[in-house]
Fold this sequence. Notes:
Layout: H1 3-9, H2 12-22, H3 26-34, H4 41-53, H5 57-66, H6 73-80, H7 82-91, H8 100-117, H9 133-142, H10 147-150
Helix pairs in contact: 1-2, 2-3, 6-7, 8-9
Amino acid sequence: MERWQRIDCAPAAEAAGELRICCGAERWVSRMLARRPFGSLEAARAAAREEWFALSTDDWKQAFVHHPRIGDRSALRARFGEAAAVSSAREQSGISGADGVVLQRLLESNREYESRFGYLFIVCATGLLFPSSSFAVPWSARYDHVPSALC
């Protein structure tokens, strides 16, 4: 059974747990629960997108707090269990080939970003390969952004 089907069929508390793996904003989770059943993956994705963009900046920040740092599967496993760690591993599969220098650079870059903006840098890592000089670009390109102008 796919995750969207489990969310459709599960009792509310269990479905909320599945949704929190996707997004840690409680308002988003509540709104997604209210929209069940979705009936299809496409409908679930459309609802998720609509509800995400209906959130406030504070809701987004709440979601960011729950998001794993790239490469930090142990924190994800501790918070949500093995299923979430496996899901994250698929999303971040390119990092498995990274050497210690690249991993240290990722850690330092994320810390610098968090220090500047108050939340971690989030990027879709699906398909990114490490080591990759192109991966350093998203972080450095965002250092000059003004958060209030992005929301």
